[in-house]
Amino acid sequence: MTQTSRRFLPPEAIARIARLEVLARNVVEGFLSGLHRSPYFGQSVEFAQHREYAPGDDIRRIDWKVWSKTDRYYIKQYEEETNLRTTLLVDLSESMLFGSGKLTKYEYACQIAASLSHLLLRQQDSVGMITFDDVIRTTIPPSSKQNHLQAILTSLDHEKPAKKTDLQQLLAQVADQQTRRGLIVLVSDLFVDRAGLLKGLRLLRTRGHDVMVFHVMDDEELDFTYAGTTKFEGMEEMGDLICDPRSLREGYQAAVQQFVEDLRRNCARQMIDYQTIRTSEHLDAALAHYLTHRVGMRQSVRN
Q1: How far apart (Å, rounded) are the C-alpha atoms in residues 303 and 143?
Q2: What is the DSSP letter of 62?
Q3: Residue 21 C-beta-side C-alpha neighbours within 13 Å
Q4: pTM of the entire structure?
Q5: pLDDT at 209
Q6: What does the H/E/C string look like for the chain?
Q7: How confident is the model at residue 34, as a pLDDT?
Q8: Which pLDDT does position 9 carry in this prediction?
Q9: Residue whose C-alpha is closest to residue 152's, from 20, 23, 281
């Protein structure tokens, strides 16, 4: 933490940032230690990871030891080939304030962003971040410097979700700004117009970006276990609703399942990596999905 950031941050904010940094480090280090001799990472300074063989690759770079264990062809990649330029898009719309458990969706999204940033910087990749609601709130340009994590954590702590969001407009703006191809990671509850969202995601793919979507949802948003007359307070300019949730549960769950499956299918058609993440899940779920995606990439996106 620099003297400047200490000057403008109260002690309690500094403590929150420190806790988030420690959490991210512990999650990442604990997760990686569990991989042992996984084909995700090499043991030398130069070697970084594997990626799946694609037609046209030099067969001399196939790792035959990995083939003997997996019966699949993987190519060795080195540091200069794997330095991704990653941009995290973190949703700050009002609906992200909802949480029925220990964490709100925004707090969980912050932990995903912090852990992925720590992992990316540990692998000497560059990472940047954009926070947004109906407009871009903050832009942290990509960097691979180790102290860059502090800028990301400070920004996350400073923000407070509010307003609505328009992901079609936001993703179009990101596509225009990100002139160099890279990995775009969207962390959001996706409470937006579905057609506009898919149009924005397609635009990113058309511009050559690799895209991942972490659809963050609270358990109650998926399971809807409420009972008895309940008042639901609307967010993002939605009105309040008083009802017996038991009469709505079956139809609600069917609608949510249809929404999630539709997003999954449409993302798959565009080769966009989509994953629903519950706020009750350990952060290992997000890291494992990211690493599986990284290893499975057909083509490395270079700096």
Answers
A1: 11
A2: B
A3: 19
A4: 0.76
A5: 93
A6: CCHHHHHHCCHHHHHHHHHHHHHHHHHHHHHHHCCCCCCCCCCCCCEEEEEECCCCCCHHHECHHHHHHHCCCEEEEEHHHHCCEEEEEEECCHHHHCCCCCCCHHHHHHHHHHHHHHHHHHCCCEEEEEEECCCEEEEEEEECCCCHHHHHHHHHHHCCCCCCCCHHHHHHHHHHHCCCCCEEEEEECCCCCHHHHHHHHHHHHHCCCEEEEEEEECHHHHHCCCCCCEEECCCCCCCCEEECHHHCHHHHHHHHHHHHHHHHHHHHHCCCEEEEEECCCCCHHHHHHHHHHHHHCCCCCCC
A7: 65
A8: 54
A9: 20
DSSP 3-state percent helix, strand, coil across the chain (nearest 5):
45, 20, 35
Q: Which residue has the higher pLDDT, 288 or 90?
A: 90
Over residues 153-173, mean pLDDT: 91
| 174 neighbors 88 (Cβ within 8 angstroms) | no
Angle at 171 between CA 170 and CA 176, to 5 degrees: 100
Instruction: State the number of CA atoms in the 13 A half-sphere of 172 facing the CB.
Output: 10
pLDDT bin (cut points 50, 70, 90) of residue 63 is confident
Helix (H, G, I), strand (E, B) or coil at 270: coil
Axis-axis angle for helices 105-122, 284-296 (nearest 10): 50
In order of their start, the domains of the chain are: 3-33+84-296 (3.40.50.410), 35-82 (no CATH)
Tokens of 277: 């993440």
Q: Where are the alpha helices (DSSP H) in 123-160?
A: 148-158
Which residues are 74's β-sheet partners?
Answer: 52
The answer to whether the beta carbons of residues 5 and 154 sit under 8 Å apart is yes
Q: Label residue 204 exposed, middle or buried (CB < 10 Å: 0-12, 13-18, 19+).
A: buried
pLDDT surpassing 60 at residue 152: yes
